[in-house]
Amino acid sequence: MKLFAQGATLDLTHPHVMGILNVTPDSFSDGGAHNTLIEAVKHANLMVNAGATIIDVGGESTRPGAAEVSVEEELDRVIPVLEAIAQRFEVWISVDTSKPEVIREAARAGAHIINDVRSLSEPGALEAAAETGLPVSLMHMQGNPKTMQEAPKYDDVFAEVNRYFIEQIARCEKAGIA
C-alpha cells in the first residue's frame, strides 16, 4: 500500500518513524522546548537524522486540561514550521489539528497528512480535509481532549473502538476521503 500527497509517495510496505514536533508552550511531552522556528527546525533536523520519515507538527496542546488556542494563534505557530520543514527536508509532514482553517493552510504550506485527534468532528473539518485531498489519520477517545481522562468506561473496548472507526471511515468516504 502507498499514500500519495503533494506529489510524493509514502510506501507503507515497511514501518516508518513519525517524529512529534509540538510547537506549543504547554506541551505535555516537551514542555514547550520547540516553540520557536529556530528550535523547531533544529528538532526536526535531529529527528530526521535519527530516522524519522514523517514529522508531525502540532500547534495546540491536546493534553487533558489544556487551553484552546485561536485559529490565528495556531496558524502562527504551525505554518512557518511546516514551510521550513518542507523547504529543508525530504520527509512527509503531518499536521496535528482539528481546525478547518489550519487544515486548509497546512495543505497549502506543504503538509502531506492531516492528523486529527478529534477525527474531523469539529464543524467544517471533514469538508476541509476532503477539499485538500490529503490522507487523514484519525484517533479515538471518549469525550474531548479536556475530558478524555475523566473515567473513560467501556463494556467491550475492542468492539466499541472498532465500531467507532467503522463509522468514522464511512463518514470520511462519504465526504470523498478515500
TrEMBL record:
Q: State one Pfam family annotation.
A: Pterin_bind
Transmembrane stretches, start-end: none
Catalytic reaction list? (7,8-dihydropterin-6-yl)methyl diphosphate + 4-aminobenzoate = 7,8-dihydropteroate + diphosphate
Ordered alphabetically, the record's keywords are: Folate biosynthesis, Magnesium, Metal-binding, Transferase
Against InterPro entries, the record matches this protein to: DHP_synth-like, DHP_synth_dom, Dihydropteroate_synth-like_sf, Pterin-binding_dom
Q: Name one GO biological process term.
A: tetrahydrofolate biosynthetic process
Give the GO cellular component terms, alphabetically: cytosol
Entry GO MF terms? dihydropteroate synthase activity; metal ion binding
Which enzyme type, at the first EC level? Answer: transferase
Q: What is its EC number?
A: 2.5.1.15
Any idea where the Pterin-binding domain is?
Answer: 15-178
Gene3D superfamilies for this protein: Dihydropteroate synthase-like
Q: Do the record's keywords include Metal-binding?
A: yes
Annotated metabolic or biological route of this protein: Cofactor biosynthesis; tetrahydrofolate biosynthesis; 7,8-dihydrofolate from 2-amino-4-hydroxy-6-hydroxymethyl-7,8-dihydropteridine diphosphate and 4-aminobenzoate: step 1/2
Signal peptide start and end residues = none
- Superkingdom of origin: Bacteria
Q: Which cofactor does it need?
A: Mg(2+)
Entry protein name: dihydropteroate synthase
Q: What is the lineage of its organism?
A: Bacteria, Pseudomonadati, Pseudomonadota, Gammaproteobacteria, Enterobacterales
